[in-house]
Design brief:
Chain lengths: 232, 535
């Protein structure tokens, strides 16, 4: 980061005031202030969910949520690192289940305690409608819950805010795994290819390719026909 | 908030002006001889003064980026007199690394009868696997075959790949897709169940399987969930990176020294076999490049394995992903998935003209971007001085129809809209970013190494991809080799008898550094990059 004469802004990290450049994300601002982060940081690209954070801005009663690696600081922000937040998670054997509402309710009986208040939706840094996928879950609609929750990064902010003590993101991954394993239509090509490979069908051709010298390989590579792009 | 400043918007108008014309324009693929000239002139791997040979160990003489050489030649965290007589836990198979390779290895090792401990630096799943967006290759359509996949892999790798490793990769690929689906992963599918499959750079068949643009995240969270379900047999230890392997008096691997990252305390975990699955080293920022990698990608596994006598290879070759975000500054270097080009977005220069086939292998595509900016002066420069070329994302919906971007690239839409950029209407500014370590620890197709008891899986390994990896072959690699290493380690552990644990190899390492007079001033593995301003 170029440390030029740019105007610095005040932010409050765990209650202490620091001056930081206004262009930084929360993670980078904390590092600029001198923190070597261990907790509350992960992929730094918005995918792993390690850095879910809550903050306030001076004079504004609202509590805001975001990913610390994707949210840019603003003047008089009050920042905290959210510590490890415990959440209920069922243990199950996905291979021994049935993709029915009954399975769902017996694995996570607390699902039915959802109040529909929407605190989870407000907290979601992915802007998912968590309340809607929980509603789908309560109806036993596994496919809809799987679809609506698909972009979940499991940061846990929803569970941290839930007055009914749900662990929404853990219920949602059960929905997606049940859908993926039992409800999604199977690919006929895949099943056939697996059978062919297990029957050793490609072994000879692969052995032959492995024996080829560089020149022959280059020649075959250059001569490959490339499948045209799909258009429209 | 945000959006593009006025001077960049001026260039966007050129992009818009040429768009209709470009819809029907196919830029020709580059012939092999021209590829080589371009790489020689513009790819970072070919800049001699940023590379050097390492001076110690079994692979001394091997060239690699300066930053990596300094870390590999570093001093150990612990001395050879560390007390190994009070181990904290004990297991059959110890897996080091909690990404896609480690999780796959844990599941298969456990299924093969082993007790497993998986130890990881940050949280389980905070790994590059989680960040991989575009897809996973597998030749499962009728017009495709593992043999065609083999040719694509080895050509993309400039014909230097280890043939046995490529064979295993392409043959296991459809099996891995099937395995992931049985674990409950949700792939993109047509209503009849047919997989949606697209091209990636350097593919001759459409075989890129995806889960929106959260493909890696969907793989990782599914594997992680399954590991948690087997908590009786697989113990996960977070915030505890390994810092050194332990050998026994016969030179067999017998566990590792692990550090509690918060308490800064070291402890020994004895194990009959170890699977090293620590990923790559993007956070070493080779040649000063920004990176797409997660915070913990500091080449730890290469460092630890090398000190036990494992061979290294291909480390002169790093992958710079062509499309890292070049604007805005806050997300500099973060990944713009190759799927964006797979869906039809063309790279164009300041004037709105194409200058390269959109889906060359990654090193060629990246070198062409660098040439366009540094060599020809046709790039766009941001207000902070960062060069880049346009990736014309609005084309995607002209080709495939409205809604395609929201449906296929939700992570990308979210990423850019946070900074006021609507990629359905405006192009994205991109420039190569450090993405992947092509080289690493040499291995056999069963995941074993020349050090008994040491198994390798994923980005920490070297040889599968030769000198350039194709898109969609890293998610494939972590699952294929994670499974293979996990199975091999479990079988090895069944008959292994641990001798007297020892850190004599650490003493020998220190002596060799002293004899050769090497002191890089680094204690390694470094575990985390230091981004603090105040030190």
């Amino acid at each position: 980061m170029e440390d030029q004469q740019q105007d610095l802004i005040p932010v409050h990290i765990m209650g202490k005031r620091y001056m930081v450049p206004p262009t930084l994300t929360i993670v980078k601002a904390m590092e600029y202030a001198g923190y070597q982060l261990i907790r509350g940081v992960g992929c730094r690209g918005g995918f792993c969910g390690a850095c879910g954070t809550a903050y306030r801005v001076k004079g504004d009663p609202k509590l805001y949520f975001g990913l610390a690696c994707q949210t840019v600081v603003e003047p008089n922000m009050y920042l905290a690192q959210i510590p490890f937040f415990p959440a209920q998670r069922a243990t199950y054997d996905i291979a021994q289940m049935e993709a029915t509402p009954a399975t769902f309710f017996s694995t996570y009986p607390e699902l039915l305690r959802c109040l529909g208040c929407g605190a989870c939706t407000k907290a979601c840094p992915q802007d998912l409608d968590v309340r809607a996928y929980m509603a789908a879950g309560m109806k036993g609609d596994i496919a809809e819950m799987a679809d609506l929750s698909f972009d979940c990064i499991m940061c846990g902010l929803c569970a941290a805010r839930c007055p009914a003590e749900e662990a929404q993101y853990n219920v949602a991954i059960l929905a997606r795994r049940l859908y993926g394993r039992y409800l999604a239509p199977r690919s006929p090509h895949l099943a056939q290819r697996v059978e062919e490979i297990e029957g050793g069908q490609f072994n000879t051709r692969l052995e032959q390719l492995k024996e080829l010298g560089r020149d022959e390989l280059v020649q075959r590579y250059e001569a490959r026909d490339v499948e045209p792009e799909e258009r429209g | 908030m945000g959006g593009y400043p006025a001077e960049m918007q001026e260039s966007i108008r050129h992009v818009e002006a040429t768009r209709m014309h470009r819809m029907d324009e196919t830029y020709p693929r580059m012939p092999i001889e021209e590829r080589q000239r371009l790489l020689d002139d513009f790819h970072p791997d070919y800049i001699d003064e940023r590379m050097r040979a390492i001076r110690v160990g079994v692979s001394k003489g091997q060239r690699m980026p300066l930053e990596l050489a300094d870390v590999i030649e570093g001093r150990p965290h612990i001395g050879p007199d560390f007390n190994l007589s009070e181990p904290r836990a004990e297991t059959d198979v110890l897996i080091i690394g909690g990404g896609g390779a480690g999780a796959s290895a844990a599941l298969v090792a456990q299924e093969s009868g082993a007790r497993v401990i998986l130890t990881t630096k940050l949280r389980f799943g905070d790994a590059n696997t989680m960040m991989a967006q575009g897809g996973i290759q597998a030749a499962d359509r009728p017009n495709d075959s593992p043999a065609i996949h083999y040719l694509d892999v080895i050509g993309g790798g400039h014909f230097t790949n280890d043939p046995d490793l490529v064979e295993a990769l392409v043959r296991d690929a459809p099996l891995v897709i099937d395995w992931l689906e049985r674990l409950g992963m949700m792939f993109d599918k047509e209503p009849d169940g047919t997989m949606v499959e697209r091209h990636g750079g350097g593919t001759s068949r459409m075989r890129m399987h995806s889960a929106r643009d959260y493909t890696g995240a969907e793989i990782m969270r599914t594997l992680r969930d399954e590991v948690h379900n087997r908590e009786d047999q697989i113990r996960v230890v977070e915030f505890s990176p390994a810092v050194e392997l332990v050998l026994d008096d016969h030179g067999h691997v017998s566990g590792a020294i692990v550090m509690n990252l918060e308490l800064k305390a070291y402890f020994y975990i004895p194990a009959k076999a170890v699977v090293m699955a620590t990923g790559g080293g993007g956070r070493l920022h080779f040649q000063g490049f920004p990176t797409t990698n997660h915070y913990g990608a500091t080449a730890d596994g290469v460092v630890m394995a090398y000190r036990t006598g494992a061979e290294l290879g291909y480390l002169e070759s790093m992958q710079y992903h062509p499309t890292g975000a070049a604007f805005p500054e806050q997300i500099l270097g973060q990944l713009v998935t190759e799927k964006t080009r797979g869906l039809g977005a063309q790279p164009v220069n300041r004037a709105g003209d194409q200058f390269v086939y959109p889906l060359e292998p990654r090193d060629v595509e990246a070198a062409a971007f660098i040439r366009e900016c540094q060599g020809r002066g046709n790039g766009i420069v941001t207000p902070t001085g960062q060069p880049g070329v346009w990736l014309d994302s609005p084309m995607i919906e002209m080709i495939h129809g409205p809604g395609t971007i929201a449906e296929n690239l939700p992570a990308m839409v979210r990423q850019f809209s946070r900074f006021g950029i609507d990629m359905t209407k405006e192009p994205l500014l991109v420039y190569p970013t450090l993405h992947y370590q092509n080289g690493g620890v040499r291995l056999e197709a069963d995941g074993s190494t020349r050090v008994p008891g040491l198994f390798i899986a994923g980005e920490v390994s070297g040889g599968v991809h030769g000198h350039n990896r194709l898109m969609g072959n890293s998610l494939l690699e972590v699952t294929v080799y994670g499974r293979r290493a996990g199975r091999s380690a479990a079988h090895y552990a069944q008959d292994a008898k641990l001798g007297q644990p020892s850190l004599a190899h650490v003493a020998r390492w220190n002596e060799e550094l002293n004899d050769v007079g090497v002191d890089t001033g680094v204690t390694s593995p470094i575990l985390l990059p230091d981004y603090t301003r105040v030190t």
